[in-house]
Known about the structure:
- It is a single chain.
- The protein has helices spanning 2-18, 21-24, 31-44, 102-108, 110-113, 118-132, 137-164, 168-173, 180-184, 188-197, 202-206, 235-256, 263-288, 340-346, 362-383, 395-404; strands at 308-310, 335-337.
- The protein is an all-alpha fold.
- It folds into three domains: 2-78, no CATH class; 102-288, Ferritin; 308-407, no CATH class.
- A two-stranded parallel sheet has the order 1-2.
- Helix 6 runs antiparallel to helix 7, helix 6 packs antiparallel against helix 12 and helix 12 (235-256) packs antiparallel against helix 13.
- The protein is flat and about 80 Å long.
- The two termini are 58 Å apart.
- The model is unreliable at 1-33, 52-79, 194-199 and 399-412 (pLDDT under 50).
Amino acid sequence: MGESKRYSHAGYRFWQQRLPSKIASHKLRSVKLRSRFSWFCKKTGRSRTATKGLHPVLMHPDCIAKNTGTIVPSITPHKKESTMFYHVKELQFNARVSKPDPAFATLLLEQFGGANGELAAALRYFGQAFGAKNPYPDKYDLLMDIATEEFSHLEIVGATIQMLLTGINGDLKNAADNSEIMQLLDGKAAKENMIHQAMVAPQFFVGTAGGPAYTNSQGVPWTAAYINGDVQGDLTSDLRSDVAAETRAKMVYEYLLQFTDDPYVKETLRFLMTREVAHYQMFEAALQTIQPNFPPGILQGDPRYSNLYFNMSSGNDFMGPWNQGESTQLGETFQFIEDPVQHVLDTNGLLDQKAAGTKRTEKTVQQLNRELSDERSAEINAAAPLGEQQWNKPADEMVGKDKTKTSKKGNK
Length: 412
């Protein structure tokens, strides 16, 4: 019995970490668990007395060694493909605040319902993932993983806002004039001054009663217009949008850090900011596995115009790697047009422009267009042929895919 008890403690710790909290919190009073208890006794040949005291999680089939009555902690994690969405009540990062701060809660709304916030990020990557499911399953996995993490970051931001607004909801429920918030805002002038200074979003008082709202810091409601342009159905474009989105989100957190003195809030914001840096690198690495990936999409640029730099402003002119030397992607020599107006006149509105400083020709460009079009089209059509479709793959296909998932280097 002592040996079984030792295993039981190890299994308890394992399943507390691995299983959804719903399973880990089952009690013996549930009908489902009583059925599992009976199954457990039958499977292991143990009496009800001998199993007394074992944690219910240990009665899960995966905790029972096949063809034996030995209780062992499973070494097989909960399979992702059979999980679907589930919610773990603990936050990814344990957000804390030292005191209420409605003013900063208003600013933090920018990352809850703003253009560069966590909701926008989660839905952006979620939308991009659908088109990648069949032709690029590795990128689908990446986008869904990060989208799901962004939803968890939305929860962290929302929880932080809620804690920063502690007390508002309770005081609003006390409609009497002697409530604490009414004393703080004693008199019409004080109330109007509070709203006028409006570092506290009015919706906290009259809309959500002390909870986060899907608005930015100025009260503008969240809109899908923030992200619709980022879902273009081509990963060479979408992943670049993602790199830019992570950049903008990182900068918002950097600015927010300057407006709070709460050390607990600062550590939460620093965590969220750092994850933007991590995601930036992940998207950048994913983009590099798609070759060629420049220019974005399929069609190549016209070699007559791809390396022209027009000096469109008067005054001090500056030279740098953006207008002299070789271009970063195509390796063409920049052509500096000193007088754009005269150049346009001399070339009949650029219709007579000749390619210069490049090895690319119209013939090679058209050939590459055809080759890349055929290649990308074949990839997608082969991954999703016409006919009957199903989103979930059969179990045997999923097992084979799991074995090769991490070995796939990229898409050619």
